[in-house]
UniProtKB/TrEMBL annotation:
This is Rho-GAP domain-containing protein. PROSITE patterns: RHOGAP (PS50238). SUPFAM superfamilies: GTPase activation domain, GAP. It holds the Pfam family RhoGAP. It comes from Strongyloides stercoralis (Threadworm). Transmembrane segments: none annotated. The keyword Coiled coil applies. GO terms for biological process: mitotic cytokinesis; mitotic spindle midzone assembly; Rho protein signal transduction. Keywords: Coiled coil. GO terms for cellular component: centralspindlin complex; cleavage furrow; midbody; nucleus; spindle midzone. GO terms for molecular function: GTPase activator activity.
């Protein structure tokens, strides 16, 4: 019997007792047993009513407990949800940190590679862009190397530094790098980008021959080669005497922009001979043939030089260039070391 049925039974018994009280008992033959049964039933109903009340109170208490438990569960669910969100946030942060760590590692490796290429060289001129084109200045004459170099150490044109670094970073393993066929259209475009653009051209996707051609085009565009005409005889004499001390003395007579640019390029060409050619000695000879006229130039002006004189001077150019590339790397590094930045030669 459930709670509702018990209540109905109690109510029915109460109605019976009320009706019995209203009766006027005049008949002595009223069944005594019936009255006794009803009284007993009444007692039981009262007990049942008390039991039901107790059960009702316990049920209400349990419902309150259930509500409390549900609230606690909701709080726990919210805390769990917040914890999951926090875990997801931490995981996202960890991924970001790992990505940043990888980027920093790549930057460190890049810096190490740059340091490996030029371990003692301070390069504040990386962002240097010549204010005037090396083709012509306002007087309709070509500019000198000093006109396109920064006025501080190292005095190396920005275009030279960028071309060398582009070659060494992206194409150092290219075989016979300075023998590749050149697209003059691509070379001119890259060269003009360096001179006229407000930003530094991206060399990652440029072909090795285009970067090499751009570097050579710049060296030919200045009015006097790196070995200037007024020192040509001094270098020629050192080569004819096969005297290393005279050659070193001639190098020390170069203007600072010429000397530091020459040192930087010789280190680059020596590295090319080691990395891009199977035979270093043959490589240096080949590079001397290619670079001699660009770096050394001619003693006699183009308008008055004869074919015979030109042939002799070309041979001298190659010998001077060969002698320069045969000097040890440590010799050239001294001109680019921070310790010697203020040295007077």
């Amino acid at each position: 019997m459930d709670f509702k049925e018990s209540c109905n039974l109690i109510n029915s018994c109460n109605l019976i007792f009320e009706e019995l009280e209203k009766l006027e008992i005049k008949d002595d033959n009223v069944d005594y047993e019936l009255v006794k049964i009803l009284e007993d039933l009444s007692n039981r109903c009262q007990k049942m009513e008390q039991i039901n009340y107790t059960l009702q109170m316990e049920l209400e208490e349990k419902e309150k407990n259930m509500l409390t438990i549900e609230k606690k569960l909701l709080i726990k669910d919210k805390e769990l949800s917040d914890s999951q969100k926090e875990v997801q946030f931490l995981q996202t942060q960890q991924i970001k940190l790992e990505r940043k760590s990888k980027e920093l590692s790549e930057i460190v490796n890049t810096m190490k590679n740059i340091e490996r290429r030029s371990p003692k060289i301070l390069l504040p001129s990386l962002g240097h862009k010549p204010k005037l084109s090396p083709y012509k200045c306002k007087y309709r004459k070509k500019m000198s190397l000093s006109d396109v170099c920064p006025k501080y150490f190292p005095m190396i044109p920005g275009i030279v530094i960028h071309c060398v670094e582009g070659i060494e970073e992206f194409h150092l393993t290219t075989e016979e790098l300075y023998h590749l066929p050149i697209s003059y259209k691509e070379v001119s475009k890259l060269y003009n980008d360096f001179l006229n653009s407000n930003s530094i051209p991206i060399l990652q996707f440029a072909s090795p021959s285009t970067i090499v051609g751009c570097l050579q085009k710049f060296l030919r565009a200045i009015c006097d080669p790196i070995i200037p005409q007024n020192l040509w005889i001094k270098f020629e004499s050192a080569i004819q005497k096969v005297n290393k001390d005279d050659l070193i003395s001639s190098i020390h007579h170069l203007p600072k922009p010429n000397l530091q640019t020459l040192a930087y390029l010789c280190l680059h060409w020596i590295k090319i001979s080691e990395e891009c050619y199977s035979n270093k000695k043959l490589a240096i000879c080949d590079l001397s043939d290619i670079l001699g006229s660009t770096v050394v130039g001619f003693k006699t002006p183009p308008g008055i030089i004869s074919a015979e004189e030109m042939e002799k001077e070309i041979e001298t150019q190659k010998l001077i260039m060969l002698a320069l590339l045969q000097l040890p790397k440590t010799f050239w590094e001294t001109f680019l070391s921070i310790e010697n930045r203020d040295a007077v030669y």
